[in-house]
Request: fold
Amino acid sequence: MVLTANKPVAVTVADVKADEEGKGFRLVLDAERVTEARFSSLIEEQKWTSTVTAAKTGRLVEPAAPGAFVVAVDAGHGGIDTGAIGSETKMEEKSVTLAFATQLVETLNKENGVKAFLTRDKDEFLSLPERVQIARQHSANLFISIHADTLKQRDIRGATVYTISDKASDHLAANLAARENLSDEIAGVTFKSEPAEVADILIDLTRRETQAFSVNLARSVVSSFEGQINLINNPHRHAGFHVLQAPDVPSILLELGFLSNKEDEKLLVDPVWRSKVADLLAVAVRGYRGEAVANGG
Ligand SMILES: [Zn+2]
Reply:
């Protein structure tokens, strides 16, 4: 028997009681409305043991301080996968993302109660499932993947914030996700998409909750960036990025700008600009956390 509610609820009573008239038993269920954040934490408590990807990272995980808000910062590409290449400077995307991610972790760690860490802290290849797995192993509350790709349309510039979806918001998003998802093939890793399990209702619920949080984070980032740094038209887009598939970690992919655009390229290699963007992201994370707390999470 499956009961569904169209608003977040928590079951307060679930009992089988003998019928007063002695004719068998009664199933008693009481449910009450709860906030989405409370609902999400209830789901969190009912952890499943199987993981979405079977990636083994072979890393020792240091648990974060109890109660810390953990942010996984993922420098896109690395090792054999250089990512895009700057048209003027010939700078590789993997170095741009690592420089920025390192700065972002430093900035976030200055925030009260935040523990940020890098999925990779050197020039090494990590498969997309490994990146997801590292975030989950650290019980990350957020996952932020950093990129700076190239586009054929060299005049397009500005930052974009992506959240995951099966259907891409537009062609540009679809093409970008397709290219990003090639990363594993470059290194000869075959990406196995997991078959859907029958008992996936819980995962599905979690995924929906996570998605709502990811969208909140993306909005928070866009509003923090607005008027401060260049944004692409419709700066919040979505597509099927494999690196954003953790069902239980709200995740965004941030294209800082495009290495195919001269102006963007100049900024991407500028430590002063990078530090400004890191500060704006810290503001966004603070805003997101504030909202989560206000909702009881
Ligand atoms: Zn990239």
About this structure: DSSP finds eight helices and eight strands in the chain. Residues 107 and 279 are 7 Å apart (CA to CA). The first helix runs from residue 36 to 45.
